[in-house]
């Protein structure tokens, strides 16, 4: 059996969501690392985080980066949503789009996997289209990503969904399904 993969997160709720989707086929262990935040595209950020984590852990790692892209703003705040939300709150995210008719957005989750130091990360990305709405429902996460109440998919915000429902359609679930398919294709080969 393959060694467990170190999922680099300090967020217990995010860990629970990843484990619910990947286990028991892929064993996940949580490891919290304080990785420097870098600027770049969604893919560049995930790639850098994965390389750095693989060096620090000296083994297989999985990192995740989440973005919320507003179409009216050319994809911003994108991977910087954490800081936008921290500074503006839910109402501030809505205010960013106040001057625009287009409230559409895309939730993007990028996972990067590396079997260890010196290996190029493999990127798995999931995208869920939606729109930005005034906050509804409780926050599913005690901290990041706290934008669940303002991201609506087919009439419900992520915060209004049960975990099992969200795990079927979320950007994270879509990325994890790609990762799971890739791991299944690697069984019997040297991944």
What's the domain count?
1
> How many angstroms does the end-to-end distance come to?
12 Å
Query: How much helix, percentage-wise, in residues?
Result: 25-40%
CATH architecture annotation: Alpha-Beta Complex
How many strand elements?
8
Uncertain segments are 140-145
Put simply, the count of helices is 5
Strand content: 15-25%
CATH class: Alpha Beta
Helix/sheet category = alpha+beta
Largest sheet: 8 strands, mixed
The CATH topology turns out to be: Maf protein
Subunit structure: Homodimer.
InterPro entries: ITPase, ITPase-like_fam, RdgB/HAM1
Family: Belongs to the HAM1 NTPase family.
Subcellular location: Cytoplasm; Nucleus
Notes on the protein architecture:
The protein has 191 residues and is of the alpha+beta class. It has a single domain, classed as Maf protein. Helix content is 35%, strand content 25%. Strands 1, 2, 3, 4, 5, 6, 7 and 8 form an eight-stranded mixed β-sheet that branches. Helix 4 (163-169) packs across helix 5. The longest helix is centred in the first third of the chain and has 16 residues, at 42-57. The protein is globular and about 50 Å long. The chain starts with a strand and ends in a 5-residue tail after the last helix.
């Amino acid at each position: 059996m393959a060694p467990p993969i170190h999922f680099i997160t300090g967020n217990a709720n995010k860990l629970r969501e990843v484990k619910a989707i990947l286990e028991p086929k892929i064993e996940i262990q949580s490891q919290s690392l304080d990785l420097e935040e870098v600027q770049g595209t969604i893919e560049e950020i995930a790639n850098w985080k994965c390389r750095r984590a693989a060096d620090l852990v000296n083994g297989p790692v999985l990192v995740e980066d989440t973005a919320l892209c507003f179409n009216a703003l050319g994809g911003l705040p994108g991977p910087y949503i954490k800081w936008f939300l921290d500074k503006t709150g839910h109402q501030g995210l809505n205010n960013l789009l106040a001057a625009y008719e287009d409230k559409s957005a895309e939730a993007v989750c990028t996972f990067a996997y590396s079997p260890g130091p010196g290996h190029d990360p493999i990127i798995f990305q999931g995208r869920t289209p939606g729109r930005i709405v005034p906050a509804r429902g409780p926050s599913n996460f005690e901290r990041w990503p706290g934008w669940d109440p303002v991201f609506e998919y087919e009439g419900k915000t992520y915060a209004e969904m049960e975990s099992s429902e969200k795990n079927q359609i979320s950007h994270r679930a879509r990325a994890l399904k790609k990762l799971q398919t890739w791991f299944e294709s690697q069984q019997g080969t040297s991944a």
